[in-house]
Design brief:
By secondary structure, this protein is an all-beta fold. The N and C termini lie far apart (37 Å). The chain contains no helices and 11 strands. Helices cover 0% and strands 52% of the residues. Strands 2, 4, 5, 6, 9, 10 and 11 form a 7-stranded mixed sheet that branches. It has a 4-stranded antiparallel sheet with strand order 1-3-8-7, with no helix packed on it.
């Protein structure tokens, strides 16, 4: 399984970004897809996840601001991030598997929120 992530960048506080992650290869087992993030000196933490049936889970810090969605036909998961804050600055990684975290990680995409 390969995961290709895109969509990071720089944005001012209050702005929005949309991340995408597309899976390829042996995708039959990818019931759950999600996003983690890691800021310098911190652990890699779950941001949001979604199952193939549409069940979602969010970290408390992003509830109401971030929305995870999934296009099963395109094997792609999205993370719409609104009202971004400086503390959202991190490298964002997509992950996929029967559950997550699993062994399949994307390459990471940097999100920087600053003025």
């Amino acid at each position: 399984v390969q995961l290709q992530a895109s969509g990071g960048g720089w944005v001012q506080p209050g702005g929005s970004l949309r991340l995408s992650c597309t899976a390829s290869g042996s995708i039959e087992s990818l019931n759950t897809m999600g996003w983690y993030r890691q800021a310098p000196g911190t652990h890699r933490d779950l941001v949001a996840s979604i199952t193939s049936g549409g069940f979602t889970k969010y970290a408390e810090s992003v509830k109401g601001r971030f929305t995870i969605s999934r296009d099963n036909a395109k094997h792609t998961v999205y993370l719409q991030m609104n009202t971004l804050k400086p503390e959202d600055t991190a490298v964002y990684y997509c992950n996929a598997g029967p559950i997550i975290p699993w062994d399949y990680w994307g390459q990471g995409t940097l999100v920087t929120v600053s003025s």
